[in-house]
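User: Before I run my own analysis I want an independent prediction to cross-check against. Here's the chain; please return only the structure tokens and, at the end, one sentence I can use as a sanity check.
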Amino acid sequence: IGQSEDQGSTEKDTWVAHGNVGAAPPWNDMRSILRKVNEDTFTCEVQGKQEGEYVTYLTVKYQRKKKE
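Assistant: Structure tokens:
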């Protein structure tokens, strides 16, 4: 169905995985970018390639709940 591979990053606290899902655009050339915001938060951005440029389709913010 698809595959993904770490592409590495020179940006601090950022990880990039490049891959493809199926054969139809935009998912036949996609990447996900994980960014650490702080000790309790990170974001994940999913992008697909359209006309030679990556376009963001989804951005999710993950945040650890604080203990009460």
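Sanity check: The two ends are 42 Å apart (CA to CA).
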